[in-house]
Amino acid sequence: MAILVCGGAGYVGSHCLEALIAAGYDCIVADNLSRGHRQAVGLAPLYVGDIADAAFLDRIFTENRVEAVLHFAASSQVGESMQNPILYYENNLSATVSLIKGMLRHGVKKIVFSSSAAVYGEPEALPILEDSPKAPTNPYGETKLAMERFMHWCDVAYGLKYISLRYFNAAGASPAGLIGEDHTPETHLIPLVLWAAQGKRDKVSIYGEDYPTSDGTCIRDYIHTSDLAEAHRLALQRLLAGGASDIFNLGSEQGLSVREIIETAREVTGVQFPVQTAPRRPGDPAVLIASNRKAREVLGWVPRHSDARSILSSAWAWHLSHPDGFGE
Ligand code: UFG
């Protein structure tokens, strides 16, 4: 029996794929390689195509005995979603409808879904709990929430069992050193900081130093891809054992400011790269910190690699060994 990993060539998908294979699961990957990287899949069988394509899905489900699906395939840039909501509703929501229709045609009723802290929008209280108000402030978060609701109704109607994992700020790279973060365009803080340390950028812009936080910069809850991968393994195990549908936050509960990330990056890299203050980025909440209590209690998940040093040193090792990312 196989596990189908949709979007397994992407950043979080490839880290979870690597961990599942290491844990002994037989995995196959579906990815359209629009943002993902062929090399990130390693030796796992890769079907190149789109989950919006019913014939593509039928071929995968016919050629393999798929037991469960892990679904990472989505567009994931907040800014792009504001410019092009149609892309996000098509690529995220419509494609997920297609995927679940395909699963149900072939009797596959278990899915671990890649959701986001973006479903909450600007939090009213911290830390953020799974049942905190959901008020997405962009189409990216809105489509993630819509997909969760869609899966809920598919459970009611067809008995689909889903576990939705709401990541806070995914960061870091696999300790094995073969995969890491490589987005085009890159908008995330940590890779941009490390590019500055490598001299690929002349400086880092801090988007706002006038937030109501201890040092004036935004605070986020960074979670290492190794910890995310372990949560996916536990969620999959739970569904395979007959567990019910559920939703979990995946965060470390430790807030780190933009300044703290920059200072840790300077220590880890030994490079005093320049920084400049820039205007606030529209739509950035001041502070996002998860409560991960539910994932700890129900899944038995314990984040072990999500301190600033572990995140930045693993990401730095990847950047040093892959100065051009996957080079694709
Ligand atoms: N930042 C800078 N300078 C940069 C880039 C980012 O100061 O050059 C700041 C941002 O303003 C923010 C923090 O660094 O305060 C982190 O920004 P990222 O772009 O790395 O991550 P976000 O918090 O914006 O986004 C993450 C995920 C999204 C998800 C969102 C939920 O990457 O997928 O959290 O709010 F939607």
What keyword list fits this structure?
alpha/beta; seven-stranded parallel sheet; three-stranded mixed sheet; binds uridine-5'-diphosphate-4-deoxy-4-fluoro-alpha-D-galactose; 328 residues
Strand content: 15-25%
pLDDT averaged over residues: 97
Spatial gap, N to C terminus: 32 Å
* Total number of strands: 12
The radius of gyration is 19 Å
Number of helices: 10
Helix and strand succession? EHEEHEHHEHEEHEEHEEHEHH
Q: Tell me the quaternary state.
A: single chain
The secondary structure category is alpha/beta
User: Which shape, going by the Cα principal axes?
Assistant: globular
Write the layout of secondary structure elements.
Blueprint: E1 2-6, H1 11-22, E2 27-31, E3 46-48, H2 54-63, E4 66-71, H3 78-83, H4 85-105, E5 110-116, H5 139-158, E6 161-167, E7 169-171, H6 189-198, E8 204-207, E9 219-224, H7 225-240, E10 246-250, E11 255-257, H8 258-269, E12 275-278, H9 293-299, H10 308-321
Parallel strand pairs: 1-2, 1-4, 2-3, 4-5, 5-6, 6-10, 7-9, 8-12
Antiparallel strand pairs: 9-11
Helix pairs in contact: 1-7, 2-4, 4-5, 6-8, 6-10, 8-10
The chain binds uridine-5'-diphosphate-4-deoxy-4-fluoro-alpha-D-galactose (UFG).
